[in-house]
Specification:
InterPro entries: QdtA_cupin_dom (IPR008894), RmlC-like_jellyroll (IPR014710), RmlC_Cupin_sf (IPR011051). This protein is mainly beta and 133 residues long. It is built from one helix and twelve strands. The protein binds thymidine-5'-diphosphate.
């Protein structure tokens, strides 16, 4: 079990017209600098496959479902995301992979940093070696 990842509960307002979910400051462990989303993803796609030196993020299945594999260098956990009111918080120095996308799924990512390729760790061995110091 990986302790520093968290499932955040996003409050929603539901009535006969539908549902409205709200992400306010207090729901998130960081200030948002960037938002991106994956859509039109083929079901056999494999995304992620990196860790970050600086970026923290929250991943939300806005529509449909997919599975996130989280790896802290010691253990691995596979988490199915399929609720727009659930956000998976991923701290820095955490390897993530995303696959098993359902048809029409949308993967929203809230990020704590601007895009900067230099803070990506895209090689698994490098990732593990960095953790060992
Ligand atoms: P990539 O990191 O491979 O996506 P994922 O983590 O979902 O598998 O990014 C795909 C491409 O998009 C890559 O060329 C970098 C670019 N990109 C940006 O230009 N800005 C961004 O904010 C992100 C997240 C990616």
């Amino acid at each position: 079990n990986i302790s520093n990842i968290k499932l955040l509960n996003i409050p929603k307002v539901h009535d006969e017209r539908g549902s409205l979910a709200v992400i306010e400051k207090e729901v998130l462990p960081f200030d948002i600098k960037r938002i991106y989303y994956l859509y039109d993803v083929p079901s056999d796609s494999y995304r992620g496959g990196h860790a970050h030196r600086e970026q923290e993020s929250v991943i939300i299945a806005l529509s449909g479902s997919f599975e996130v594999t989280i790896d802290n260098g010691k253990s691995r956990e596979r988490i199915m995301l399929n609720k727009p009111t659930q956000g998976l918080y991923i701290p820095t120095h955490t390897w993530r992979e995303i696959d098993n996308f359902s048809s029409g799924s949308v993967c929203l990512v809230l990020a704590s940093t601007e895009y900067n390729e230099d803070e990506y760790i895209r090689d698994y061995k490098t990732f593990v070696n960095q953790l060992l110091g």
